[in-house]
Structures are given as C-alpha cells and as structure tokens.
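Researcher: We are triaging several targets before committing to wet-lab work. For this one, the compound of interest is magnesium ion. I'm pasting the protein sequence and the ligand SMILES. What I need is the predicted three-dimensional arrangement of the protein with the ligand bound, expressed as structure tokens, so it can go straight into our comparison scripts without reformatting.
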Amino acid sequence: MSDSPIILKVEGLSKYFGGIKAIDNVDIDIRQGEIVALIGPNGAGKTTFFNCLTGIYTPTAGDIYLSDPRNGKTTRLNGKKPNKITEIGMARTFQNIRLFPTMSVLENVMIGRHCRTKALIFGAVFRNKATRIEETQIIERSYELLKKIGLHRQVNEEARNLSYGAQRRLEIGRALATDPFLLLLDEPAAGMNPKETEALVALIREICAEGHSILLIEHDMKLVMSLSDRIFVMDYGKKIAQGTPEEVRENPAVIKAYLGEDVDA
Amino acid sequence: MFPVKELKRSALTSLWFAFLTFPIMVVKVDPIERVVSWRWDNMFFIAFGSFVFSILAKVFIIQKERRASKKKQKTISEPLVQRIVREPRFLYPLALACFIFGISFPFLFSTYQTNIMTTALMYVVLGLGLNIVVGVAGLLDLGYVAFYAVGAYSYALLNYNFDMGFWTVLPIGGLLAALLGIILGFPVLRLRGDYLAIVTLGFGEIIRLVLENWNDFSQGPSGIANIPRPSFFGMDMTFAGGITYIYYIILVLVVLTIFVVNRLQNSRLGRAWLALREDEIACEAMGIDKTKTKLIAFSLGAFWAGFVGVIFAAKTTFVNPASFTFLESAIILSIVVLGGMGSIIGVVIGALILILLPEYLRALSEYRMLAFGAILVVMMVFKPGGIISNVRRNYKFKGLSVVEGKNNE
Ligand SMILES: Nc1ncnc2c1ncn2[C@@H]1O[C@H](COP(=O)(O)OP(=O)(O)O)[C@@H](O)[C@H]1O
Ligand SMILES: [Mg+2]
C-alpha cells in the first residue's frame, strides 16, 4: 500500500469562520487504493474539511492537490468549482442527507452520470442516435449501481420515501455514478442499525476492491477500526494524530480528546 | 366537531378585520357637502363575512388534515386525472380528440370566439415557456413579460424600420429574447429565491420604462401602429381569414411547444433542472454546472416568450408599453402555479381556465386581480402541487436492460 501513488495531498489547510479556526493547518495525504478514516469529536472540523476539499468552501490557507491515478495528472483544487472537482474524479456524500427528494431512486443515480455525458438542447429535442445510446447507457449504468447498493427493487420510488439507511446507500450510489477515483463519505453509518451497518461495511470493502480509494468520516469506532488502513484524528480544527488503527488506539492525545481532560489514560 | 377555541379565534379575526377596514369602509367624508356619513352596516357585513370565511377555511384545513392522516394509513391512491395522464391508453385518444377539436374550432365557432381562443393559446405557450424556468428549474422569474415585450417590439420595429416580414422576424424575435435572457441571466442567476424574484421583477419594469420613455427608439407610450398581419404566400386575406390564419399559427406553435418541452423534460438536461430545483449544493457536488444549466433554462424560457411576442404584435397590429406591465407576468405565473409546476397538461389547463373564464364571465373581469390572488392562496393551501402535479417517469427492467420507460406526459 505504501508504495502506491499519492492521489490526494493536502498541505497546511486552514479555514477560519471569523474568529473560529474550524480547520487549523492540517496536512493529509491519501494513496491509491486506501481506505482512510478521519475521526474526531463533534465540531472538530471534519465536515468543514470535506467542504474545503470539494470546493463548497474556499480555504483560508493551504493547498489541495488531486492526482488521477488513471493518467497521473495532478490538479490544484483551490478555487475550483465543486462541479469541476467532481469532474476530475472526487465525489462525496453528505452528513445531512442531500438527495433529490421528489425524484425517483433511479433518477437520483442518473443525475450522477450528468458529468460523464453530453447531450444538451439539440439532443433532447431531436433524440438523435448518439443521444438515445447515451440515455440508454445512463439508465443501464444507474440500474447496475442500484443493484450493487441493493436498491434495484425500488427504482421508481421517490427518494424521500426510502428508509434512512437506504437513503445513505443511495447517496453512495449517486456519488459512484460520477466515476470517482476518490470517494468521500461523511458519516455513512449515522442512523443505521447494526444489520445495515454490517451491509455498509461490506459495500465499502467492495467499492474499494474495485479500485476506488475512500476517505470516510465516522463515529462508529468498530467500523473505523475494522475498515481503515490509516486514521487521521482531528480535534478543535487541528490534526492531533495519525497512523494505523493500532497506533491511533494507543495514542494518549486521542484518548484525551475523546474522553476529556479529567480521565487518566 | 368544530372546536370552540377556533370559534373564538374566528370571532377575534373578524373583529380585527372590522377594525382594520373601519377607516375605508365605515367613515365616508363628503368634501363638497362637508358631512361625514357613518356606514355602520358595512362594518357588520365585514365582521360577519370574515367570521364565516375564517370558519370555512378552518373547516377545510381540519378536513384536509384528517384526510392526510387517513392517507398515511392506507396506500396512496392516485387521483383520477393523474391516472389518465399516466396511462397512454387514455392519454393518446384524449390528446387526439383535443387536437381535432383545436383544428375544427374556427369552423365551429364565430370569429370572435376564435380570436379569444387565439389569446388563450398564446398564454398556453407563454405558460409552457415560463414553466421551464419556474416549474422545472425552480427559478422564480417575475419579469417574464420583458422577453414577451422584446419579441413584440422586435417585430414592430424591424417591420417599421426595415420592412421585414412576419416569418423573417419570428425566429429573430425569439433569438433576441433568448440573447437578452443570457445577458441578464449571467449576473442575476447567482441570486436565489426571493432575491432572484425581486431582481427579475425590477428588470421587467426597466424594460417597460425604457420602451415608454425612449421616444426616438420605440415611439414612447403611444406605441407603434399598423403592424401587418402575417402574409400567406403573399396573398391578401379578409379580416376573418386573417384571424383564422393566426389561430392556426398559434395552434401549431402550441403543439410544437408541447413536443419540445416534453422532450426537454425527459432528457439529461431536464433531469438536471429538476435536481437543481431540489438541491443546488447536491447538484454541484454531482458535477452539474449550476450556472450553465440555469442559463439554458432561463434563455429557453425567454425564447418562447419572444416567439409569442412576435405573434402578439401581428395579432393586435399594435404594440405599446401598456401591454407589458407586471400584471402580465403575474397572470403567466398564476397559470404555471395553478396548473401545476412542471406539468405540461396542468399548465395547458391552467392557461385555458385563467384566460377563458374572465372572458366569459365579463362581469367578473373587474375583479380579476382579486380573483387571481384568492385562487392562488386557496390553491397553495389546499393543493400546493397545482391542478395536476408532475408525475415521475416509471422505468421497467428485465435483466440489466430497460424494457420500458413509461412517460409521464
Ligand atoms: N458555515 C459555517 N459558518 C460558521 N461556522 C461554521 C460553519 N461551518 C462549520 N462551522 C463551525 O466549524 C466547526 C467545525 O464544524 P464541523 O466541520 O461541522 O464539525 P464536525 O463535522 O467535525 O462535527 C464548528 O465549530 C462549526 O460551528
Ligand atoms: Mg460533521
């Protein structure tokens, strides 16, 4: 693993909201094929970190570089629009689920194919051969993804009628539809029951085995420890530890951050 | 049973209303006779009227809540109209019947009726155009009439200055409006919701004021007269013949618009518009270029308004700025909201109701604005999706390939 190429490199990233240092000088790197976890107490700045990576927030300082392992091209992401970043090959899910609630399950995934397809007004009105082929491919690819995440029986259901766990899986499916090489998951197991969590772990493993690298934020320690190759720990906007699950578990700073000052480690 | 608490609240509401309207409805000052008359009976009517009205509204809301909670327990059954719309077996014959009726309309009815129907069909196209912007893409545009004006004045001015004919200007008018849509859209489409509404409203008024005040360009408030009707291979037509001809032009345009809008809605672009209406941030994160997609919706809507504008100028043979007030935008918006945001059939029905009803209920047309307001408020409370709400497309799969993609409209 340690010899595979670095695909995401974050150097000295900071994000201030007025006086609040939501992220303070954080360095992180991810290699091709890894599952990396980002953990930390609530309010540590994890979601803000994702928002900076995906272009929703502009970082106050620091650099973000993304390298496509398929062609080795490196892009500096600072100042790029979110849709451009997704196009380069990094997709995400949201902590507070952001599906398109009144669109069908299938259509939600089809939206993910948008940045890999081309038809515009002309194609829509005249339905020429290229457009018809493209549209069929969109539908079939989306259906395939729904099978993978186990929602193919609910293709025509409105997304808002799905159970909480199914909605989280649909978000993953939608993100996968954009053909990312790096997938960012923000608390994918939040609100899931143990059985759903188990299925999620299997799904994440499967996605990783297919060649996607994964960066995930998660509070479920059992899931984090069993899934991740490496873990980064944040607290009050700073990176306080990093390493393999074993290293992080033993790290006194991490134990202090999670259990509070008063407890002797 | 109706709760006593609500009765009390209704009583308070009516007293408050009576108090508020006291200066206008009760006190009447006659400056010539120098007397003040007190019309207390008016106060009674208002108090009583608002009391009854608020109770009625409450009853409706209670019933609706009851029905909604019942619905949750049972499986939701689709309303009849929705089922007809979904089922091609019913929809196609129905559409064919409507089309045949449309074609034979001028033979069945008088020139006067045909003329009214032409106006109604113009609003159908305007409604469908605005439906792309507001209903599908969710961009609240209150200045839509500006693009309509651009189309109308394109024909008026190009004909007046350069003697260009109807058929030449028809596409030009549409393109000019679309161009204006792009120019305006660039700075404005960054704004969201209320802000977008306010800016487009202002823009609509600016266009009207320019037309009113720039005398050298547009001949000011007096407008431009003697615009020729469309020619039919260079033949001259009788007055009635001309009206029938324009009716058919607009009928073709209606069919064309329905075709195009339907295809757009069921395309990659249409999906992106819908998604944009639901969640902009998620859209961007899914790789959709927000600005570009919105701009396409905005300028396409403008294109249709420009088209109809040209036809409007040819139909009335006269344009002046008074035809393009905010009231027009409000009417077109009402059509979209009443008919059902994003639903083609809904918008068609909405346009026919809102334009034909006032024509045939002449007595009511004085209270048009009042009626619009009331209808919209009632609709928003009881049927927020409009007469026909948009139905999602159904897909069937066998193995890995699509067997059928059942259309919604
Ligand atoms: N848009 C914002 N404006 C102001 N403060 C924000 C904003 N977004 C996040 N924050 C603050 O940044 C800190 C980190 O939040 P967040 O990234 O959501 O934490 P986490 O995801 O680790 O729980 C919090 O103190 C939060 O209040
Ligand atoms: Mg968070």
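Researcher: Any quick observations?
Model: The pocket of magnesium ion (ligand 2) is lined by residues A 46-47, 95 (CB under 6 Å).
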